[in-house]
Amino acid sequence: MLFVAVLVASAYGGGFVASRSMFPPPLPPDGGAPAEWKPYMPVLWEAWRYVQQDFYKAPLDPDALVDGSVAGMVRALGDPHTAFTDAKRAAISRTTLEGSFEGIGATVEMREGRFTIVSPIKGSPAEKAGLLPNDIILQVNDTLIQNMDVSQAIALVRGPKGTEVTLRIQRGTQAPFKVTVVRDVIRTPFVESRMLEGTTIAYLRLNQFGATAPDEMRAALRELLAQNPTGLIFDVRRDPGGYLGVAVDVVSQFLKGDQIVLIEKDKNGVVQELKSKNGGLATNIPLVLLIDGGSASASEIVAAALQDHKRATLIGVKTYGKGSVQNVHTLSDKSELRVTIARFFSPLGNEINGVSVAPDIEVKLTEEDTANKRDPQLDAAVKFLQTGK
Question: How far separated are the first and last CA of the chain, in Å rounded?
């Protein structure tokens, strides 16, 4: 799992949510616990007391115990997409969908307990400071971070614009050295676009269904369509999803107005149809959608809608298979609780959750392809738009 710009939280955990942000009214100091819960509280407090009294390591971290209690309660529901996220991870996760944050600007991951730079973002403080792919961050200021939880490591590196962070770096077989980086505002566009070299085909990629994605999509489409392409490839491979409303906005660029995008069914059996909006910019151009096993949630909403309406030819492999919607609640300590509230289905009523969206043309991408910088799925999309085969 990659962590973007030292500030991005895990996007999957079983597929990123197609979420609705919720802003409930503040709760009273007791959390608003109802009277009917009183019979259950003694067991919780008995366990808490015995842990405080008997556990051999001291002192205990009350925050960790509370977080663990809530996380355990949520896990008992048996739904991988209903989940609790502590305050630190939640703060990092929010930056994923906002499109900007303050940090050094590098894609990182934990590799066997070592905090490793995958790639500095172009033009970022990390790049300007000379950090390179595969550099290992051994220490952040005075804190050693080997085998540290990745979210904790990220939290140490991030910080306000204009402040400095000193990193101790291991590069290959060289002796470790220190690099001081001045943090800045890092903007991570959700959309990539270009005309494919040697063709008249436009290429558009969406990395995530974040808050600014619809505006970025419209701007990119205007620029691409001004070049009179004969076809368009829309790539949502490895896109873990994001906001439900953004998914509707995105697919509306390719569908006529007032077409069903998805069917939502809640726990009471109430059915709601979400429909496309008017004003799509690319409703007629020949279209191929690239999908893979990393295309989840909001990506699957788009894939199913374009397939059911016969608006695009889907090329690649089956999607992830997450067809549920979550409400995201920010709790009083800034932690987050995602709660599954509904399932969504394709416009024709097809199940997505646990089933996936299958491509019209299956083309696999192997590790060998990736290692040799080949992309047979993209090649197949180009060929299909050029020849219809």
Answer: 35
Residue 335: what residue type?
S
Same domain, 198 and 242: yes
Contact 19, 243 (CB under 8 A): yes
The Cα-based distances of 328 to 1, 81, 94 in angstroms read 22, 11, 11
CATH number at residue 378: 3.90.226.10
Residue 155 and residue 253 in one domain: no
The residue-averaged pLDDT of 227-243 equals 94
Closest CA to 272 of 357, 340, 175, 345: 345
Judgement on whether residues 292 and 176 belong to the same structural domain of the protein: no
Number of structural domains (the chain) is 2
- Examine the residue annotation and report whether 322 is marked as an active-site residue of this protein: yes
Residues 137-190: tens digit of each pLDDT: 999 999 998 888 777 788 889 888 999 999 999 999 999 999 999 999 988 789
Is 333 known to be catalytic? no
Catalytic residue among 297, 299, 335, 346: 297
Q: Which pLDDT band, with edges at 50, 70 and 90, does 111 fall under?
A: confident
**For this structure, is 308 an active site residue?**
yes
Please name the residue ranges forming H helices in 198-329.
213-225, 244-251, 298-308
The pTM of the whole model exceeds 0.85: no
Give yes or no: residues 339 and 369 share one domain: yes
Spatial contact of 12 and 83, defined as CB atoms under 8 Å apart = no
**Same domain assignment for residues 219 and 181:** no
Q: Which of 249, 295, 322, 324 is catalytic?
A: 322
For the chain, what's the residue count? Answer: 389
Whole domain around residue 104: which residue ranges? 4-12+90-187
Which candidate, 356, 298, 353, places its Cα nearest to that of 323? 353
Residue in 135, 292, 308, 346 annotated catalytic: 308
